[in-house]
Amino acid sequence: MENNHIEVIAGMLKTMSHPIRLKILCLLQNKEMTVGDIREEVKTTNANVSQHLSILRNQKIIGFRKEANFIYNRIDDVRVLELMQTMGKLYCQNAGE
Q: Is 86 among the domain residues?
């Protein structure tokens, strides 16, 4: 792996590592969600959710589409989606055991 790839990957992982952003990514791996939907699940303010979504968008991890008065957020980076699914298999599958 080349140094420039390592820097890019480290930056992406740093962005994802915040607990709220990681939870947002967990929520978005199966469906699109609005800020309000995410806020209900994450239990924080709309402004806080919007700030974290902005950080994820700036890193090109998530994207959005506008429909009427709603903005639907989704994971745009297939690599991130695969990473989230892998982490789910590794850490969540046996969580109840």
A: yes
Report the domain count for the chain. 1
> CA-to-CA distance for 40 and 93, rounded, in angstroms?
24
Distance, CA of 73 to CA of 21 (rounded, Å): 13
Q: pLDDT-based confidence at 88, cuts 50/70/90?
A: confident
CB 62 within 8 A of CB 74: yes
In a domain, 48, yes or no: yes
Containing domain of residue 39, as a range? 3-91
Confidence of residue 2 (pLDDT cuts 50, 70, 90): confident
- Confidence band for 48, pLDDT divided at 50, 70 and 90: very high
